[in-house]
Amino acid sequence: MKRLMIVVPCFNEEEVLPTSLKELISAVENLIKKEKISRDSGILFVNDGSRDRTWELISKAHKESNYVYGLNLAGNVGHQNALLAGLNTVKDICDVSISIDADLQDDVGVIEEMIDKYYSGADIVYGVRSERKTDSFFKRFTAQTFYKFMSAMGVKSVYNHADFRLMSARAMQALSLYKERNLFLRGIVPQIGYKTDCVYYVRKQRMAGESKYPFKKMLSFAFDGITSFSIKPIKMVTALGAVIVVCSVIAFIYTMISYFMGHTVPGWSSLMISIWFLGGVQLLSVGIVGQYVGKTYIESKERPQYIIEEFLNHDKKS
Ligand code: UDP
Ligand code: MG
Q: Where do the structural domains in the chain lie, given as residue ranges?
């Protein structure tokens, strides 16, 4: 029997944690009873620098239950890095991990199916939302636009899959080789290349507390995802530049022909438009290129992705 570790990143989740704890513990107990996972399986809660009582709740649960493990990060590093911290921590002590959000919007009920698919040979099993009825129209729309835009930009990612996924130990080992600071797991995991599979579920509403991904964060997440995986935007800017050059040459030829035919093209507004347009395009282009330069700068420093303050463990060694 294999040892399962469920990894749960938590940022200011005191409102949902008590419920999530109960549900996850009973899920693990249930799987142990069915002899699908070993008795030393558990749940690792990663506290991503929360400012509320999240860590207190985790440490208390760790004392009360043999299934609860806790990882306290020294500061807030964001969902993706917190998740990576959790996966890197469990990769050497378990056979298989499942990552899930603390608000349990993803269906704990399909974990068993994930494990079954793992036993039948998949190294990575994606949890995919079959519908999004409970999400607000706005969330659904922005999320779906995001997935479509990503694939248009050439980023390979699984449609309607967030960070609810199963990974085998060797898939986690492979993941730990990716050292980038601008971490976009949904793009990296498909690049690993092991055998994958999917399970489908209906995404629920957040039980309590509010989304830690407001629009602004979502936008920067999407932007990060694209610029970390694709240089298509730079190519597009280059193409746009070429098109504008061609247009201006045509306009120049047209003006010259008119001039020699005896009438000049009147008006200065067309002139202003072209100046503003070109200025705008240039600023935008420099901005996009700048984003990549900035990223290179951040990566070149090779700063740690996260710092661990404390690891609450039930294993005797370590
Ligand atoms: N989260 C985190 N660090 C952050 C922001 C979020 O660890 O800086 C966690 C959060 O606690 C939750 C998960 O990431 O477990 C997803 O966040 P949320 O449910 O708010 O996102 P949404 O479902 O609204 O996209
Ligand atoms: Mg959520």
A: 4-214+304-317, 232-301
Does domain 4-214+304-317 match CATH 3.40.50.2000? Answer: no
Q: Is 91 in the pocket of ligand 1 (CB under 6 A)?
A: no
- Among 81, 19, 17, 14, residue whose Cα is nearest residue 48: 81
Q: What is the pLDDT of residues 259-310, one digit of tens each?
A: 888 877 777 777 877 888 888 888 888 888 888 998 888 888 888 899 999 9
Predicted structure pTM score: 0.84
Listed residues: CB within 5 A of ion ligand 2 = 101, 103, 105
pLDDT digits 0-9 by tens, 190-247: 999 999 999 999 888 887 788 887 788 888 888 888 888 888 888 888 888 888 888 8
Please tell me if the CB atom of residue 48 comes closer than 6 angstroms to any atom of ligand 1. Answer: yes
Q: Is 167 in the pocket of ligand 1 (CB under 6 A)?
A: no
- Ligand 1, atom nearest to 46 Cα: 7
CA angle 294, 146, 132 (to 5 degrees): 145
